[in-house]
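Weekly structure sync, notes
Attendees: PL (lead), two postdocs, one rotation student
Agenda item 3: pending single-chain targets
PL asked that the sequence for the first pending target be pasted directly into the notes so everyone works from the same version. It is reproduced below exactly as submitted, 128 residues in total.
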Amino acid sequence: MLYRKLKPAVKGCFELLKEGQRDCDRFMSLNLLRMNTVSDGSLPVLGYRIVGDKIECDIISEQWKRGDILRFISLVNEKAEFEDIIVDTKSQTTVVRDVQPNGLYAFVHLRNGRKGCLASPQQLIANS
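Predicted structure, written out during the meeting:
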């Protein structure tokens, strides 16, 4: 059920797919182990936190390359949305977005690699 809501937002967020495995399969198997997992891969885990009505994600410039994307995922009132953000690591150290009460949120680091998309392993956090 969660995958149906998040499908467009998590497409391409699973780096470690086995032969013939789809994003949906990987999502389901990971969520049996860790609920609310929205991505998986070899990039470092991002640190983010909810402060009041904002979510803040720390950017460590040494971990970013030109063309990397920061995907912001939100699930509020059964509606999933996402935004791909190009991060300027020279000037940005924190990315901030608004949050709603009772929503679920995550940031995912994505990078195009030679063998496909690289991703950071991330989970949704609740604003409760």
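Discussion points:
- Strands lie at 37-39, 48-51, 54-58, 69-76, 79-86, 94-98, 103-113, 116-119, 122-123, 125-127.
- Helices lie at 2-10, 23-33.
Action: rotation student to compare against the earlier draft before next sync.
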